[in-house]
Design a protein that fits this description.
By secondary structure, this protein is of the alpha+beta class. Helix content is 28%, strand content 35%.
């Protein structure tokens, strides 16, 4: 009778686990790349401003359904089901918005009556300070004016009613800033910002966001009102 070698069994089990892990990682990358390829293709089709996000208003019904399905597929393979416990430091970065159906984004994107176009939308997160800044760049189609709209806010992990739900943050918006960086081709630092508005928090609800996917370079979030955000890591943009 032959005797099994415990060391060989342990080694075989370890190799099998490593192989399964690599397969899962490869599958996740494939699913993620499919989403990013769809977004790139739609951006090329519908947008003229580099790095501007696409929105649900840009898309045909079937395109929107396909994109939502691709987003859901990525969310289903998140490596950090509880990102606030498992990967919160990954939030600490500069992000650029690739897709959203949020009203605050679609309202900017659809304002073409004055010749203004939405450019890149960035989010800079500081995990240590529990704060972030959203900055949306806008420019005139003839480049006669360029500026940005910025919102600063604090955030905190939301109280968790159930175990396994450490992915929701509550958001406390603080102020909104309006800036003009260029006017008729001239830089205008004295108009950056030209208006700052303090934000009054709503009394009947707390704005929140669920982080439904997070890794080293991609993040997906869903707002409390059902809005959707897809972002990738990026370097900040100093100006339009």
């Amino acid at each position: 009778m032959t005797q099994s070698n415990p060391h060989q069994e342990t080694l075989g089990s370890s190799n099998s686990s490593q192989s399964n892990l690599e397969k899962k990682q490869a599958e996740r990358e494939h699913i993620k790349q499919n989403l990013l390829d769809q977004i790139d293709r739609l951006h090329t089709q519908y947008k003229t401003v580099p790095n501007s996000p696409i929105t649900n208003l840009d898309l045909e019904t079937q395109e929107l359904e396909d994109l939502n399905a691709a987003i859901a597929a990525v969310e289903a393979v998140t490596p950090y089901p509880e990102p606030l416990l498992q990967g919160i430091q990954l939030l600490n970065a500069n992000w650029v918005l690739r897709y959203s159906d949020a009203r605050e984004i679609t309202s900017l994107s659809s304002r073409t009556q004055f010749g203004l176009q939405l450019g890149a939308v960035y989010q800079k997160i500081n995990v240590d300070a529990l704060s972030f800044e959203n900055r949306a760049y806008v420019q005139h189609q003839w480049s006669c004016i360029a500026g940005s709209v910025a919102v600063t806010a604090r955030f905190e992990p939301a109280p968790q009613p159930e175990a396994g739900q450490n992915r929701r943050i509550n958001v406390i918006f603080e102020k909104r800033s309006l800036s003009i960086s260029k006017l008729l081709g001239l830089k205008t630092p004295f108009l950056d910002p030209f208006k700052v508005i303090q934000v009054t928090p709503p009394k009947d609800r707390t704005p929140c966001l669920d982080i439904t996917y997070l890794d080293q370079d991609l993040r997906i979030g869903r707002g409390g009102n059902g809005s959707l955000f897809v972002l990738t890591k990026s370097q900040p943009q100093a100006a339009v």
